[in-house]
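**Tokenised fold:**
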Amino acid sequence: MPIHNKLVRDKIPEIIAATGKEFTTKILGDKDYVEELKKKLTEELNEYLETTTDEDALEELADVLELIHALVKVHGKDMATLEQIREDKAEKRGGFADKIFLIEVEDE
């Protein structure tokens, strides 16, 4: 039986059970849950970086967004709060729409 040892989406056990396969899961404690969310975020971000099509990129970004939703809850906030923080930062420092690439800044 292959060993995965990774956080999976909530319906994965149900999907596996529908195939008739046996499996083992456990429910993580809060500390382990946060660590596994971080690992999963890294995994999904790396998968996004490896995409070669817009369709695949959007699939991986959807996975990243799902993890962001979970992490926001872990930190005791909601997506509206996160969006407000994003908007505040964009207002103060701008976004990335202008495609500005900083090359150097003069030392004093």
